[in-house]
């Protein structure tokens, strides 16, 4: 595998404001597109985000629940759904098979393109704004349902383990004005989590939803990021792991990097979601 491009030097720790969830008397809900309909009591907090790109011991899926890997894609147009299915699906499957040692991998959703608010395209496509509050993509109940729904049809037996992955890639050049912060899974407590409804609202289609998780503030949380990402890298993190004793899930959020110089290209990224199975 080619060496990861480390880019220009950046601060070891940055200070950023992110949105946790505050106290609520009713079940929270949030929408993919019309965020004026969100029912959330956000709790803005200033956090320290570690630049872990140059750590001697790079974060791993087995410890923190996330890792950065070299991964060059053959896709020439990430806006073409057919090319994504034809080329990027098998690329993601092979990447996760190699990283996880799973028996099978199923890509579960088309790529989601997102743009920082500095881009005129932010919000113009379905679910295309950065996620500005801390969340985990799926709850345990949702993870079980999705894993069963997407289990390979030719599998002779139920899976003994399933892991949901998010593979996040920038498509714009470094540096990123709005990178992704990920939380060390080991610093998270069950008491920090709140079940919420993630609602997908697309014009002229029926709304649908599933249960996700939001996060209350805990000063024990350890936040990390990889500055200066390139399109030839992928940030891979767990959103649910059914195996006891493994990092279970990784909260994440977009944030404004205060050390990013002005006038850079707005962040453009794509995320792919997939489930790995062990039989």
Query: Assembly state here?
Result: single chain
Coarse shape? globular
Distance between the ends:
28 Å
CATH topology: Jelly Rolls
Biggest sheet record: 6 strands, antiparallel
How many H/I helices? 2
Query: Strand portion, in percent?
Result: 25-35%
Radius of gyration: 18 Å
Second-tier CATH architecture = Sandwich
| Uncertain ranges | 1-8
Average predicted confidence as pLDDT: 94
Helix and strand element order: EEEEHEEEHEEEEEEEE
Number of domains: 1
What class, by secondary structure content?
mainly beta
What level of helicity do the residues show? 10-25%
| Count of extended strands | 15
CATH class: Mainly Beta
List keywords for this structure.
about 280 residues, mainly beta, Jelly Rolls, six-stranded antiparallel β-sheet, five-stranded mixed β-sheet, 2 helices, 15 strands, about 10% helix, about 35% strand, globular, disordered N terminus
């Amino acid at each position: 595998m080619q060496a990861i491009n480390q880019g220009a030097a950046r601060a070891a720790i940055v200070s950023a404001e992110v949105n946790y969830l505050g106290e609520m008397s009713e079940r929270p809900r949030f929408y993919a597109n019309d965020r004026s309909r969100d029912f959330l009591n956000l709790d803005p907090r200033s956090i320290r985000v570690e630049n872990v790109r140059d750590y001697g011991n790079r974060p791993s899926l087995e410890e923190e629940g996330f890792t950065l890997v070299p991964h060059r894609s053959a896709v020439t147009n990430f806006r073409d759904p057919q090319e994504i299915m034809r080329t990027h699906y098998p690329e993601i499957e092979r990447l996760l098979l190699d990283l996880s040692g799973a028996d099978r991998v199923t890509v579960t959703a088309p790529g989601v393109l997102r743009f920082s608010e500095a881009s005129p395209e932010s919000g113009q496509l379905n679910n295309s704004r950065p996620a500005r509050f801390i969340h985990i993509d799926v709850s345990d109940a949702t993870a079980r349902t999705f894993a069963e729904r997407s289990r390979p049809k030719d599998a002779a037996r139920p899976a003994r383990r399933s892991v949901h992955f998010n593979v996040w890639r920038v498509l714009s050049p470094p540096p990123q004005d709005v990178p992704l912060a990920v939380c060390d899974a080991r610093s998270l407590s069950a008491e920090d989590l709140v079940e919420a409804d993630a609602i997908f609202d697309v014009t002229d289609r029926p709304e649908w939803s599933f249960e996700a998780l939001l996060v209350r503030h805990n000063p024990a949380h350890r936040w990390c990021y990889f500055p200066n990402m390139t399109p030839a890298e992928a940030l891979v993190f767990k959103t649910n792991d059914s195996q006891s004793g493994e990092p279970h899930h990784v909260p994440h959020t977009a944030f404004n990097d205060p050390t990013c110089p002005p006038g850079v290209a707005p962040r453009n990224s794509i995320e792919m979601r997939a489930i790995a199975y062990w039989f």
